[in-house]
């Protein structure tokens, strides 16, 4: 790895259709397989890692959570902490159930990035005319 302040950023939008998401995971894995530089991935992953990241709606698919968690672990990624609201998306009411809330937006980084910017965090902003909460810039005195 070069000794510099540079790092790579991957913006992610994973398909809302479950059967297409594994293609995204595979492409990201292939893209980063030989990357040694500090790297950050952020965006809408359209998946959750555990039942605590969902409220309301139908029952959590534990196998789906496990697949996504394993992908994060296999990729040796760590999550950058966020502040403010826990959930980043609000879905509609379906079949008379409560609204669904999920944490589908997240920021993941490799260990090299986290070691360099260990105090970093991001803010989840309020929703405005959307069902998605935007995530603001990453806060760290070393970055900005």
From TrEMBL:
Query: This chain belongs to which protein, by name?
Result: Putative ribonuclease H protein
